[in-house]
Amino acid sequence: LNKPEWYLTQVLMWIGNHAKFLDDKIQPILDKAGSSVNAGLEFSRGLVMLILEKLAADIPCLLYDDTLFCHLVDEVLLFERELYSVHGYLSSFPSCMHILSEESCFQRWLTVEKKFALQKMDSMLSSEAAWISQYKDITDVDEMKVPDCAETFMTLLLVITDRYKNLPTASRKLQFLGLQKELVDDFRIRLTQVMKEETRASLGFRYCAILNAVNYIATVLADWADNV
After folding, report:
1. Whole-angstrom Cα distance, residue 42 to residue 27?
2. Burial class (CB in 10 A: 0-12, 13-18, 19+), 116
3. Separation CA 69–CA 49 (nearest Å)
4. Chain centroid to CA 169: how far?
5. Domains of the chain: which residue ranges?
6. Which stretches are annotated as coiled coil (predicted)?
7. Residue pair 49/61 in contact by the 8 Å Cβ criterion
8. 144 near 212, Cβ under 8 Å?
9. C-alpha dihedral (112, 116, 121, 122), degrees to nearest 10
10. DSSP 8-state class, residue 143
């Protein structure tokens, strides 16, 4: 259960290793018979069906082990990325995202995603470099003087989007968007709390850093407004 990458990588290897044989030897037979079947894609689809069976059997066994469950999700997302980008798998075919979208698994994924995001926010705001810009010494890069915590937070949101963007239904994507909105609000509250501590020194370094953080986050969210 702790090594889903073993069978996921094995399947990717089988798909890659058989591609030439299927294209050179099997596809011409199908073409000659007037079939519209793509041998390579059908081979991939058959192997993915095996993975779906394996996942359906494994997931109930690790649903409440955060570490194992997170590792499984991470490996499945990597597998899916390579399956589509390297091997040309079709989005209309069955995929692992359908398994991750099933109610019990999906709700667990959301819960765990939120838990680890909040932990990441705790660590980024308690860091000594939280209010310092990574690029403070490079003037032409750092026009907005973005503190490290704001940049890390927006990267966190971007990573979450990247993880859920291939979910098969809009309703599931919207649930993840709801989580991101919660995180933005949580971050706003945290910034407000820090700001209240700094009101005596409203021209101080940290107070200005908070304003820069808010400006940066608002600007990036406005840029993302076109991303359906």
Report:
1. 11
2. middle
3. 20
4. 16
5. 2-100, 106-225
6. none
7. no
8. yes
9. 110
10. S
What contacts 110, CB < 8 A, 6 or more positions away?
A: 175, 176, 179
Question: Rounded to the nearest 5°, which phi and psi values hold at 227?
Answer: -85, 105
Phi/psi region, residue 11 (left: phi>0; alpha: psi -120 to 50; beta: rest), is alpha
- What six digits make up the tokens of 143? 């026009």
The two tokens of residue 83 are: 């399956």
On whether the CB atoms of residues 182 and 117 are closer than 8 A, the answer is no
Distance between CA atoms of 67 and 32, rounded to whole angstroms?
51
